Amino acid sequence: MNLTTTKEKILSASVIAERVVGKKESLPILSCVLLDAGSTLYVRSTNLESAIDISVVSEIKEKGTIAVPATIFSQTIKSINSDKISLKSESGNLLVESRGARTLIKSIPNEEFPILSRGDDSKKSSSILRLTLLKGIQSVLYSASRSMIRPELGSIYISIKKEQVIFAATDSFRLAERIVTGKNSSGEEGEFLVPLKHAAELVYLLDRSLGESVKIHSSDSQFIVEADSARFAARVVEGVFPNYSEIVPKQFTTEATVLKNDFAEMLRKARVFSGNDQHVGLHVYPKKKIFSATAQSPDVGETSDSIDAAVSGEDIDIKFHIGYISDCMPVIDSDSITLGFSGPNRPLVIRGVSDADFMYLVMPLNR
Amino acid sequence: MQTAPIMTAPPMMNRELWQNALVQIELGTSEASFRTWFRNTDISSRDGSTVHVSVPSKIVKEWLVEKHHKLILKALRALDSTIRTVEYTVHRSATPVAAERKLGKTPSPENASFDLQSLYIDKRDNLNPRYTFETFVVGPFNQLAHAAAKAILERPGQTYNPLFIYGSTGHGKTHLIQAVGNYFKKAHANKKVLYVTSERFAVDYINAVRAGRANGFKDQYRQYDVLIMDDVQFIANTEKTQEELFHLFNALHDNNKQIVFSSDKHPNFLPGFEERLRGRFSAGMIAEIPEPDIESRTAIIKAKIEQHGFNIPDDIIQYIAESVRGNIRELEGVLNMIVCKSQLKGKAVSHADVRALVKHNIKPNKGVSIEEVVRRISMYYEIPEKSIYEKTRKKEVVKPRQIIMYMLREEFNVSYPSIGEKLGGRDHTTVIHSCEKIKHEMKTNTSLEQEIEHIRSLIHS
User: Fold this and answer.
1) For residue B281, which of B265, B296, B299 has the smallest C-alpha distance?
2) Any bridge partners for residue B298, and if so which?
3) Mean pLDDT, rounded, of chain A
4) For residue range B177-187, what is the model confidence (pLDDT) as tens digits?
């Protein structure tokens, strides 16, 4: 193999590929990226459950295939100062050359590298705006369960319809949903349950892509996303995402509108005092026009904090896990948010005042 | 009932086969490669000479097909020479360990959670996705019903229409008919399936009539391609609802739409139903799910405990299967209790523990008073209760009276003289004669036998 490419292109490909490599796999080849130079250069990696395949513009003088450990490769590329990089195979190892620098990376026999077939892409594909997909997944990602014991809760639910794309995730303690309406997608409609791990890998890829829209299709229990020059495939899980609209309270007994930053700051302060439990008490007294938060722990002390808020309804004292509330703050596109309470032991609904697409539901602590 | 059918291919056999094949395969590959590619693989099913190997992802599938297919086939054929082909399928359930990650903030146990369980039922068709054929344990007792259900899926609306499944509570009727719905829903995305209990149907109808939308109700129900109605016995004696069901039945049947019913009795013995409806129930295929036999109960227990990832010695399984009769639901309850108890104790349960659990939790042949038996049987034959105790020798009274005597003797072991005394001071020889007569007649008269069977379930319910 002998080729030249630009640092920018190969670096972006290698850091994305690095995210997908297998960790703690018994086969050393799975922690590698495969550089496959045929008529174009492909950078590939896989952890057996998801796989990525990125084509990189390069000038190929001699064809060849070589596999090198992903971390070492991307670290090497990162440290290079010049624009042009040449990759050569030298007695089976990879020689990375740039102005003044020469690095030889020991390669690993690539016969065992998994076969990543491209498959038939023509059937059942839809196209969706990249930013819609990225923002949608990011908006709900943190709400999915970290455990795959119940696959539907350990996954992100994505439903693509003609005029509406729904993203949702829940770990049964809280639920995040973003519904994007309007013309965001075209082609086939579909529903997917993408495991959290792969959704995170996808976010990483989408965040580093440039194109305006991406293509999505599914075949053979795989979910395939094509963005720019990259093709990401991950397994989807079978399951039925809970029909959660039933648990969303329709009416509130108490409502409060606050500035998002004020509220986030209040939670940040409360977190310091909440100790290991991470409990925060919210106290809303509309008659006295009070909206406050309290937190205490025997080791640290206690704090109580009030912020300006427009409040209405009945008085309520309710306790939450602090992380569950603060998790959703960064993804709300609005300066002010409304909190809708519907009594103790009923979920709190958080929405952005000017971000109607997003909804967050969180269960309080049992008293 | 959550494991693969035991009749066609016992899961243990498939597993054993694969375990033995893996030993062979391991010898033919490097350790690292074996651990990578054969982790989380299994034989999912086997039909005849084809073995279906389930693999965790498409990447693994392609690798096995490309690189290890010969090795796998060879290893399998060495164990069973009838195997000709191996197919690979990606199983879509999650790999249990893969995505397990430690998280900084773990949910505090006191955090309330959404009640999601109840939301899994699809509101459009009321089907619970938990009930599938994969989780239906097939044994000799329900083989017929299972085969009939499978048959209607091949050619819905044509093979057996309607399919009528009957059997006592807890024998798996609902599971089977919901499995039909779920299977159909999966196979034909554009067809409409509805699962409804007869009670719900009646309530819907009443509401529709009250709101003056009776026509809307008709249209709504007539749009379905498969209609599954559970527990039809509950709309006994509801004249208008039955009439509506009758018309709905005709409309669907004429258009070759599949209809499935379940009930606790054979259509001929459904009290409070009009003849024309009963006739229609019997028009297609009637399959009974009787009490599971002991082998099936053993198989169900084994399937259940395997699903719990649990091990119980065979003699205890045998004991449970023998002592917990009839109701599968009860059987599950006892098993759950045993599993729970042994988890609490942290060790395997002893024979004595199981004995105690079973004794406390199984409803004994509960004592029904003689008056109650008389009341129920006379109700069944629609004759006044009083007449049983009277000296009358009318034909329509004599037969029920004899049946009452027979039941009291057979089911409750009441002595002949006290039966006679209770039923209006009759001589014990009269009672003996009655019992003998019924016993004798049952041998030749099957309809009487069925009647007795229903009366028995009526008394014990």
Assistant:
1) B265
2) none
3) 89
4) 999 988 888 88
- The model's pLDDT over A147-174, given as tens digits with 9 standing for 90+, comes to 888 888 899 999 988 889 999 999 988 9
Q: Closest by alpha carbon to A199, among A11, A20, A15, A358?
A: A20
What is the least distance, in Å, from the CA of A147 to any CA of chain B? 5
For tokens 């004020």, what's the residue?
A262
Closest CB from A114, A173, A238 relative to B107: A173
Q: Is residue A348 part of a domain?
A: yes
Give the B-side interface with A, CB within 8 Å: 31-33, 35-36, 56-60, 62-63, 66, 90, 92-96, 98-101, 103, 105, 107-108, 110-116, 118-120, 122-123, 129
Residues of chain B with CATH 1.10.1750.10: 370-460
Catalogue the E-assigned strands of B99-184: 163-166
Same domain, A161 and A252: no
Among candidate residues A52, A77, A112, the one where a domain is terminated? A112
Residue B1 has pLDDT above 50, yes or no: no
Domain with CATH 1.10.8.60 in chain B: 294-361
Q: What is the fold of B14-90?
A: GMP Synthetase; Chain A, domain 3 (3.30.300)
Which tokens belong to B324? Answer: 């917990």
Pair (A209, A157) in one structural domain: yes
Tokens of A224: 């395939």
- Return all residues near A317 (Cβ < 8 A) that are at least 6 apart: A281, A282, A283
Q: Report yes or no: A226 and A122 within 8 Å, Cβ to Cβ.
A: no
Degrees, nearest 5: CA angle A311-A316-A322 = 90
Quick one: pLDDT band at residue A45, thresholds 50, 70, 90?
very high
CA distance A345 to A343: 6
Shared-domain flag, residues A99 and A141: no
B177 neighbors B167 (Cβ within 8 angstroms): no
Report the predicted TM-score, pTM, of the whole model to 2 decimal places: 0.63
A221: chain B residues, CB-CB within 8 Å: 57-58, 90, 92
| Alpha-carbon gap, residue B407 to A253, rounded angstroms | 61
Q: State which amino acid sits at residue B284.
A: G
Sequence letter at residue B63: W
Cα separation of A136 and A60, whole Å? 38
**Residue of chain A whose Cα is closest to the Cα of B122:** A243
User: Is A167 in the same domain as A203?
Assistant: yes
Nearest to B99 among A195, A243, A247 (CB): A195
Spatial distance between the Cα atoms of A214 and A230, rounded to a whole number of angstroms: 10
Short-list A192, A201, A193, CA closest to A160: A192
Residue A238 has pLDDT above 60, yes or no: yes
**B92, B118, B129 member nearest A237 (Cβ):** B92
Higher pLDDT, B221 or B326: B221
For residues A238 and A254, membership in a common domain is answered with: no
Whether residue A240 is found in the same domain as residue A294: no
Please tell me which of the candidates A197, A246, A345 has its beta carbon nearest to residue B112.
A345
Contact check, Cβ <8 Å, B63/A114: yes
Q: Which residue of B has its CA nearest to A279?
A: B108
Assigned fold of B133-288: Rossmann fold (3.40.50)
Q: Which CATH architecture has domain B370-460?
A: Orthogonal Bundle (1.10)
Alpha-carbon distance of B431 to B419, in angstroms, equals: 7
* Residue-number span of the structural domain to which A10 is assigned: 2-112
* Inter-chain touch A323–B105, beta carbons under 8 Å: yes
- Locate the chain B residue with the closest alpha carbon to A170: B114
Residue B6: the pLDDT is 42
Task: Give the C-alpha separation, B206 to B212, whole Å.
Answer: 10
d(CA B419, CA B411): 13
Is the pLDDT reported for residue B356 higher than 70?
yes
